[in-house]
Amino acid sequence: MIEDFFDHTCDIYHLVQTTEDAGYGLGGKQVFAYPDTPDIENIRCHFAVKYQTLVTVQREPQQDLDARIKLTLPAGTDIRVNDKVVSRVTGYEYKVEIPRNIRDHHVYAYIKRQDGQRAL
Length: 120
Prior knowledge:
The strands form two sheets. This protein has a six-stranded antiparallel β-barrel with strand order 1-4-5-9-7-6. The chain has one helix at residues 2-5; strands spanning 8-13, 16-21, 28-33, 40-58, 63-74, 84-87, 93-96, 100-102, 106-113. It has 120 residues and is mainly beta. It is built from one helix and nine strands, in the order αβββββββββ. The longest helix is centred in the first third of the chain and has 4 residues, at 2-5. A hairpin with a 4-residue loop joins strand 4 and strand 5 (63-74).
């Protein structure tokens, strides 16, 4: 059963447009940000390590490891392009690429690592 396949949990944050005060008597400006609380909390999912793509990128002052991983979710999950997914096990943040509904059986999307370990 597909429910047995979902052995991880994650939180999903939808990107929302808000108005931020620009200050100095200027009007508000439109910005996009993630809310502080997740839109979908503690949802069962599967991070497919077998299908991950790891790339070492040379940045100053060190090399960083960027990851692209396949995320599988239950059918009907409201996940969108540019959503933020946070693994509840590792705490890593990922940004969602285009999600795909597979015959109303499950949803999958490739996700990219938001922030790796950076120099202090």
